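Figure S7 source data.
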Amino acid sequence: MSKPTADNAPNAAAKGAPAAPANFLRPIVQADLDSGKHSRIVTRFPPEPNGYLHIGHAKSICVNFGLAETFGGDCHLRFDDTNPAKEDQEYIDAIQRDVQWLGFQWAGPVRFASQYFDQLHAWAVALIEQGKAYVCDLTPEQAKEYRGSLVELGKNSPFRERSVAENLDLFARMKAGEFKDGERVLRAKIDMASPNMNLRDPILYRIRHAHHHQTGDTWCIYPNYDFTHGQSDAIEGITHSICTLEFEGHRPLYEWFLDNLPVPAHPRQYEFSRLNLNYTITSKRKLKQLVDEKHVDSWDDPRMSTLSGYRRRGYTPASIRNFCDMVGTNRSDGVVDMSMLEFSIRDDLDRTAPRAMCVLRPLKVVISNYPEGQVEQLELPRHPKEDMGVRTLPFARELYIDRDDYMETPPKGYKRLEPGGEVRLRGSYVIRADEAIKDADGNVIELRCSYDPDTLGKNPEGRKVKGVIHWVPAEASVECEVRLYDRLFRSPNPEKTEDGGSFLDNINPDSLQVLQGCRAEPSLAQAEPEDRFQFEREGYFCADLKDSQPGRPVFNRTVTLRDSWGS
Ligand code: ATP
Ligand code: MG
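Tokens for the predicted adenosine-5'-triphosphate complex:
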């Protein structure tokens, strides 16, 4: 499938909160229920366990599980495990974890297409017996040549007219392991002149001497996707088999198998457009390459577009589901703007994340006129609107503010601290900068300030203090590591490269900045992995799922407070 690019495709949705977009599948399902064609619907999500799920899969999960939820039906999780060489138990586990994390639960047990291998084999034999399948000995190169092209008809294979008996014998010997990988295949006998390439005697079975994670060494022939998918749907009583548009051309083949085999049900296939997101890779193969070649740390690296990456980054399941809703479900390909996903997570965290203060680049401040040894326990609300209670913040003589909140020679309109200037410390007093202490190189290493005891919770008489900055107490604050993540790709369409280039050339070299020695307010010391916060003025953060622990927190920046990539 040729993928639309960010430059030429219609934008699937504008920035900000769009109107509720349509889902063309709902009326179809509704009509099938109304007409009595189905009394209960069954959908399925059919991942290949050859990588971790990415944001595109989230769309498919939301569509399939969403329809079942809306119409009171079932959704199955079925691993499409016909390619053992590329599959792995790690992926099987991760996929289940991610589906459940998104908030969905499949009906019944986890299913595997490999459970149907016996039935599929019997059906392959049935096709041979009907004269509708044959064993073909063409090499892959010859087969390609015989297949023709979109503008050139295919040619019949010289092996097409083998007798039923010979085909049965050869197929049995394929199964018995007599031949090497690629030596022979089983093909359907349909039409080498069909304008639809998928109908030009497609492969049903190939030889692969590979150990399978579910079936062990039982098989050395494996059915391919097309021969597996529709029949598995039929076996499971799937009513609506929903996939992405690149399978539209496979639908006649899907139908052909159902029409020519004694299947117990006749599901219908519907296609919708893939989710493409700018600045983002949605191909497992390329994501795997990023991991294998160590451009990122792991499949769940917070910069990855995998669901487990988004999870570690701090995205909530609700934000991803809302995003998938906002995008809509239709048949027109487009590229969705990343700002829409970021809107969705900001929108969620704005309401649900408690506020806290964390100084990312600490600069010590000594309040010269504050009594030594004195500490005041200030109470600040955890959230400006929601009722989340309060946290206490000790105010003492020594504090930290952010280095960027003090400037010797500030530009016009600067609202933070400057020599002789005043600023309010969030939830606390107004302070004035009296003196900057510098090191030998002239860098400011400490500020001497004075506070106005009359300004707790009110403005000083007759003076207007415009700026409010965040701070933490020096002693009571907790040291932490903060990881500032940015987009992994600097180009809106990472797959589009200069001639001969690779998508790797578009990696953003500044996608991760690790800050050590940050200081967080005391209430953050006990943060549990995955606790989310808004660090005032800095963005939304999440305690890292793997590396953070109470007492030694590590925070990942999920997203900045505002869109800084927008025009
Ligand atoms: P990839 O191209 O990343 O390898 P895939 O389509 O091969 O993805 P599968 O494991 O076969 O991955 O996908 C499971 C389901 O998810 C399929 O029904 C597929 O159509 C759907 N899906 C995959 N990518 C997207 C996407 N970008 N948008 C919507 N659905 C998707
Ligand atoms: Mg696939």
